[in-house]
């Protein structure tokens, strides 16, 4: 069996490439080691998050990615909610960063607006108004339930666009024009995309080492379903989250914000904690998260991190049911100072990786761009690496 494109990995990066290729009329196969996608694509908030990307190429890609999620949700039949996002400011330096962001080109394309405390309360009734300085609402963010979206997108690609999926099929070798699975079967394709996230090391260990990727571990929590009718509203991000996103990096007051957190909340820096919340389609709240890198990563989750997240959430939100039904962690690969990377590891074999925590926010548009460039380029060398 020969395909126009073989994709290794069935997460959002792999599905994005399969979708883009299938829409071009190509014959596509996707290979996945597990019985379903089990990596970062299903272990996240379900936030499609243009507000976190810096103005310029990254923001434009994120806004296109937003359009593609709406298209994919409509085609595949899963909900894509245009919920927007609300950054809360409970300290003057947080409000200053938000004001500086709004007043400059840093907010280009977002239609974001600064909100007084009473407007914040109207938009998110659960917010604790003690010391609330205000907030920033951005209407462009979307919400999906990751497991549902990935599952239904997979079914749509298979049933409607005739993409062939081979689950429980571990690829052990990749060469130009062919792959070998652990079942000792050879499959042929004109082009191959390796989109296996943090796990492509086993295929090309030397190339993996040269990339100097950082592996990040995140801890997250899920509450029990909230009472019927209770709504959080937009995605919520607290003031400390501002220091996590490069979109806010050049705001003058960011230095003051960072210094305050470093002095008063050193555990936030030690564990890379920033506070976010989103409500899924079942009424449960997803809470998080933390960021531990490389040698700091342990196989066991830290109760200290979970307790810190819960403590901070309780300070800023009044949630009816705070009982925790589930905790988990996720791993992703990140290339510092780049949105993602594309490498031609063999002729007509691309590695697409390094999205960090931005896979949901960038991958569909990145895949569209890569497939368009690949098919029209006079050379197979594709570089799409806008720097932060």
Give a summary of the structure in a few sentences:
It is an enzyme of class 1 (oxidoreductase). This protein has 388 residues and is α+β, with helices and mostly antiparallel strands.
SSE blueprint:
Elements: E1 2-8, H1 12-23, E2 28-31, E3 47-48, H2 57-76, E4 85-89, H3 92-102, E5 113-115, H4 117-123, E6 134-138, E7 142-143, H5 146-159, E8 164-166, E9 171-175, E10 178-181, E11 186-194, H6 205-211, E12 214-223, E13 235-237, H7 254-264, H8 266-271, E14 276-279, E15 285-288, E16 292-293, H9 303-316, E17 324-334, E18 341-346, E19 349-353, H10 359-376
Parallel strand pairs: 1-2, 1-11, 2-8, 4-13, 11-19
Antiparallel strand pairs: 3-7, 4-6, 5-6, 9-10, 10-11, 12-15, 12-16, 12-17, 13-14, 14-15, 18-19
Helix pairs in contact: 1-5, 1-10, 2-5, 2-10
How is this structure best described in words?
It is a single chain. The chain has 388 residues and is of the alpha+beta class. It folds into two domains: 2-43 and 147-211 and 337-376, FAD/NAD(P)-binding domain, CATH 3.50.50.60; 85-139 and 214-334, D-Amino Acid Oxidase, subunit A, domain 2 (D-Amino Acid Oxidase, Chain A, domain 2), CATH 3.30.9. Helices cover 31% and strands 24% of the residues. It contains ten helices and 19 strands. The strands form three sheets. Strands 4, 5, 6, 12, 13, 14, 15, 16 and 17 form a nine-stranded mixed beta sheet that branches. Strands 1, 2, 8, 9, 10, 11, 18 and 19 form an eight-stranded mixed beta sheet that branches. It has a two-stranded antiparallel ribbon with strand order 3-7. β18 (341-346) and β19 (349-353) form a beta hairpin. α1 packs parallel to α5, α1 runs parallel beside α10 (359-376) and α2 packs across α10 (359-376). The longest helix is centred in the N-terminal third of the chain and has 20 residues, at 57-76. The protein is globular. Mean pLDDT is 93; it is low at 377-388.
């Amino acid at each position: 069996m020969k395909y126009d494109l073989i994709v290794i990995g069935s997460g959002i990066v792999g599905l994005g490439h399969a979708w883009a290729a299938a829409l071009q009329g190509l014959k596509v196969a996707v290979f996945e080691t597990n019985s379903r996608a089990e990596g970062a694509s299903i272990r996240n908030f379900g936030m499609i998050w243009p507000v976190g990307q810096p103005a310029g190429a990254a923001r434009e890609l994120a806004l296109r990615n937003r359009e593609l999620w709406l298209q994919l949700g409509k085609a595949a039949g899963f909900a894509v909610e245009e919920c927007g996002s609300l950054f809360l400011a409970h300290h003057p330096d947080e409000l200053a960063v938000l004001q500086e962001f709004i007043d400059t080109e840093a907010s280009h394309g977002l239609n974001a607006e600064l909100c007084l405390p009473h407007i914040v309360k109207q938009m998110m009734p659960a917010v604790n108004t003690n010391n609330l300085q205000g907030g920033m609402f951005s209407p462009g963010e979307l919400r999906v339930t990751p497991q549902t979206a990935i599952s239904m997108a997979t079914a749509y690609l298979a049933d409607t666009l005739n993409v062939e999926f081979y689950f429980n099929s571990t690829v052990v070798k990749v060469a130009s024009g062919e792959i070998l699975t652990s079942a000792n079967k050879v499959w042929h394709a004109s082009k191959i995309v390796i989109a296996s996230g943090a796990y492509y090391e086993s295929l090309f260990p030397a190339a993996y080492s040269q990339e100097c990727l950082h592996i990040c571990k995140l801890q997250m929590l899920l509450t029990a379903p909230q009472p019927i009718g209770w709504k959080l509203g937009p995605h919520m991000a607290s003031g400390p989250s501002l220091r996590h996103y490069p979109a806010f990096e050049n705001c003058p007051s960011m230095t003051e914000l960072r210094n305050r957190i470093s002095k008063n909340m050193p555990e936030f820096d030690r564990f890379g904690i920033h506070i976010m919340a989103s409500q899924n389609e079942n009424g449960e709240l997803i809470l998080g998260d933390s960021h531990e890198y490389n040698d700091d990563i342990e196989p066991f989750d830290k109760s200290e991190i979970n307790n810190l997240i819960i403590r901070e959430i309780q300070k800023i939100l009044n949630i009816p049911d705070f009982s925790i039904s589930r905790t988990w962690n996720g791993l992703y690969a990140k290339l510092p100072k780049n949105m993602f990377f594309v490498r031609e590891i063999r002729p007509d074999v691309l590695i697409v990786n390094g999205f960090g925590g931005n896979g949901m926010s960038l991958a569909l548009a990145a895949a569209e761009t890569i497939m368009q460039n690949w098919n029209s380029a006079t050379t197979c060398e594709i570089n799409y690496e806008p720097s932060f």
